[in-house]
Design goal:
heterodimer, A: 158 residues, alpha+beta, B: 5-stranded antiparallel β-sheet, 4-stranded antiparallel β-sheet, 11 helices
Chain lengths: 158, 318
């Protein structure tokens, strides 16, 4: 049985119907084609599936799609403006913070949420905020540097 | 890992609607708060089937299954829209934390200070920052896991758990709420409204956890301490110590109070009390660590929790 769902994803409103068993991660990937949302452990323990729900990083694999009614979801696809990369994305590239890229969607979304509420986080704060996003490739150092040194739109290097 | 068992989904707008549904469905319904525990339990069925197909080590998997419940409810009742369960309220005597208050909200809440800090410590360390944006205190308590961080902290704070059903309302001491690993006194038609804690002056508390990682980890040992000081002599007039992951349920160690009350909170006194707590703990060997190591660490963690609790209480005095 399908349940009606009205939700906003990356600024676009969708009115559709979903089976209650569908997780947000599955809905975003399979229904909306947003395959920047990654499925890692499926149990909320790796952070690969992180999306922003009403601005806060959440494990999309542990949220039922129906629970997002009247809410706003942002995935990695919603971070850039068309082909114009977000400063965080540019910083990740410049600092070599991406290897296989599987953790990157989650890392950038969590970091985006962090710097929006805390524009100049110190290293300790960055590491704590990213503690739920695991990376098997980089050893985290360059990710931390990328977040720490992100150049914002008004050109201030942090 | 997928949810393969079909279910009806209900998202009631009031507490009464939710209680009506729960009264009708009983244990055929699962209650959905943050979902960070429930959805894993619901996905567990697909994992079981994958393992059966792959023919992996059945014995090991069956053992793991005893720890992780498999939920296949006919109905999921979401608490997302129920305002009565949200938020932190405070009066002069008590602090009330609504069941669907998330860990993130708890970990930064301005009304939680001094004597109640252990709850903030626990909420700050549970899961991960991402999980904490969804996980709720109600969910953590009803999971009734021996290592549940906020359960251990709330125990030391003398919490009452408020339960409500269609026809009844009851308030239980948290110290008698947990019955065994994963089992609590919540009746199948009851919802947790929240927890309430007594508030007083000249009090301090703390929660500390030992694990192989700092985040995304379940406690090897958890310890919470709460103390109340006499303002002039700074002697201990009341104290509570609770432990996690070293018994079938989160446990309050009553005998530590005797080792502390009436005494000055010196290092020697705190160490003695920590040893008393260690002697009451009954940990098991498991894949996280040995019983022997856990016992030693109980003493270390209780000492640290007490020290921080005392220093916070002293801070509250001035």
């Amino acid at each position: 049985m399908k349940y009606p769902l009205k939700t906003k994803v990356n600024g676009q409103t969708y009115e559709t119907a979903v089976s209650p068993q569908t997780t947000l991660a599955e809905f975003l990937r399979d229904e909306l084609g947003l395959i920047g949302v990654k499925q890692g452990c499926g149990q909320g323990e790796c952070g690969a599936c992180t999306v922003l729900l009403d601005g806060k990083p959440v494990p999309s694999c542990l949220i039922l799609a129906v629970e997002t009614a009247e809410k706003e979801v942002v995935t990695i696809e919603g971070v850039s403006k068309g082909t114009e990369l977000h400063p965080l994305q540019k910083s990740f590239i410049e600092h070599g913070a991406i290897q296989c890229g599987f953790c990157t969607s989650g890392m950038i979304l969590t970091a985006k949420s962090l710097i929006e509420s805390n524009p100049e986080p110190d290293e300790q704060t960055i590491r704590a905020a990213l503690a739920g996003n695991l990376c098997r490739c980089t050893g985290y150092q360059k990710i931390v540097e990328a977040v720490s040194n992100v150049v914002t739109d008004n050109g201030d290097e942090k | 890992m997928k949810i393969i068992h079909p279910f009806d989904y209900e998202c009631p707008n009031t507490l009464n609607e939710a209680l009506e549904l729960l009264d009708k469905m009983g244990k055929r319904a699962s209650v959905l708060a943050g979902g960070t525990d429930l959805l894993v339990n619901m996905k567990a069925l697909s994992m079981l089937q994958l393992v059966d197909k792959a023919g992996t080590d059945q014995a090991a998997f069956k053992a793991a299954r005893r720890v992780r419940p498999i939920h296949t409810p006919d109905m999921v009742i979401s608490l997302a829209n129920i305002e009565a369960l949200q938020g932190v309220k405070k009066n002069k005597k008590r602090l009330f934390v609504g069941a669907t208050t998330t860990m993130t909200v708890l970990s930064t809440h301005p009304e939680i200070t001094d004597g109640s800090m252990a709850l903030k410590d626990a909420a700050s360390i549970m899961g991960s920052p991402i999980i904490r944006n969804r996980a709720t205190i109600g969910g953590n308590l009803v999971s009734a896991r021996p290592a549940a961080d906020t359960a251990v902290a709330a125990l030391a704070l003398g919490a009452q758990v408020e339960l409500v059903s269609k026809k009844n309302r009851q308030s239980l001491a948290l110290s008698s709420f947990f019955v065994g690993p994963g089992a609590s006194k919540r009746l199948e038609n009851e919802l947790v409204l929240g927890v309430s804690l007594p508030l007083g002056s000249d009090e301090g508390s703390a929660y500390v956890r030992l694990g192989t990682r700092k985040q995304l980890e379940i406690a090897l040992v958890g310890a919470a301490a709460w103390v109340k000081l006499e303002p002039h002599s700074k002697k201990l007039v009341d104290a509570r110590v609770s432990l996690g992951a070293v018994a079938p349920t989160p446990m309050l160690v009553d005998s530590t109070a005797d080792a502390l009350i009436g005494k000055s909170p010196t290092d020697a006194v705190l160490s003695t009390a920590a040893n008393v707590a260690r002697d009451e703990a009954t940990p098991i060997d498991d894949f996280r660590g040995s019983a022997e190591y856990r016992l030693e660490m109980v003493a270390v963690l209780v000492r640290r929790a007490l020290k921080t609790a005392v220093s916070r209480a002293k801070g509250a005095l001035s």
